[in-house]
């Protein structure tokens, strides 16, 4: 009789054999971004608790990168990430139904890891995605801080801004890895300059980033901000995540 670990490993390996491609960084980045958003939105919708949603998001982040180091099957990674979100929410709700007040988060994490990742471990010294991991951490930082600030309103704003932010971040990362300092500074600006001006700040970051990409400079304080307010507040069409999945 197969153990749970053997069963999970056999399932993952069978799906892994179905795909014989190398994932590119753009696929990974946008799928990761969507996974983080789904984790925060779905967990908060189910549990109505900011802390639980952030714990789930951090767990999903770990599971995602373990799978990235093991398999090229993007659909499998998305499936297992969604499965982890579902298991987390169900575990919390069942615990509450039995009136268990002090839920052991470590036990929850262990249970979900066993049901998704099984015996797989993150490969050490995996340099292939180390730089991509850094930029993904920045988008995770932005979304988490927005989620903490916006709470239940997060779901109403995130779909408007993530295509803009994601596209600019990725282009900056591809052009020059040293742009990470610019990215960190502008993420701070988006958060710290007032949520009432969120769309404005996101579009300011977009234009600032595109000027940097084109090796141009601009006096934003005196020449650009009025133009942004008047003409640049409509976000781009939502990014179609399905276009990045290779069959």
What does this structure look like?
With 247 residues, the chain is mostly helical. The protein has one domain. The chain is built from ten helices and no strands. The protein has helices at residues 4-16, 25-47, 50-68, 74-97, 105-116, 130-150, 154-175, 180-192, 198-213, 220-231. Helix 2 runs antiparallel to helix 3 (50-68), helix 2 runs parallel beside helix 4 (74-97) and helix 6 packs parallel to helix 8. The longest helix is centred in the middle third of the chain and has 24 residues, at 74-97. The radius of gyration is 20 Å and the shape is flat. Residues 228-247 have low confidence and may be disordered.
Which features characterize this protein?
10 helices; mainly alpha; about 250 residues
In terms of quaternary structure, the protein is: single chain
Compressed to H and E, one letter per element, the order equals HHHHHHHHHH
What is the residue-averaged pLDDT? 81
* Category by helix and strand content: mainly alpha
Strand element count = 0
């Amino acid at each position: 009789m197969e153990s749970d670990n053997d069963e999970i490993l056999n399932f993952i390996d069978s799906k892994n054999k179905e795909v014989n491609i190398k994932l590119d960084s753009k696929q990974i980045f946008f799928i990761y971004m969507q996974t983080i958003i789904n984790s925060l939105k779905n967990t908060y919708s189910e549990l109505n608790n900011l802390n639980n949603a952030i714990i789930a998001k951090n767990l999903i982040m770990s599971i995602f990168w373990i799978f990235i180091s093991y398999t090229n099957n993007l659909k499998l990674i998305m499936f297992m990430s969604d499965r982890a979100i579902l298991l987390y929410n169900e575990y919390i709700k069942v615990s509450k139904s039995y009136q268990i007040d002090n839920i052991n988060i470590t036990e929850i994490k262990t249970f979900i890891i066993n049901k998704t990742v099984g015996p797989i471990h993150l490969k050490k010294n995996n340099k292939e995605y180390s730089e991509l991991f850094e930029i993904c951490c920045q988008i995770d930082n932005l979304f988490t801080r927005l989620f903490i600030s916006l709470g239940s309103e997060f779901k109403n704003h995130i779909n408007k801004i993530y295509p803009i932010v994601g596209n600019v971040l990725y282009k900056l990362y591809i052009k020059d890895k040293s742009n990470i300092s610019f990215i960190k500074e502008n993420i701070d600006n988006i958060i710290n300059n007032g949520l009432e001006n969120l769309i404005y700040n996101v579009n300011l970051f977009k234009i600032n980033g595109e000027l940097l990409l084109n090796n141009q400079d601009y006096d934003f304080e005196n020449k650009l901000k009025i133009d942004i307010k008047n003409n640049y507040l409509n976000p781009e069409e939502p990014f179609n995540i399905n276009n990045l999945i290779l069959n």
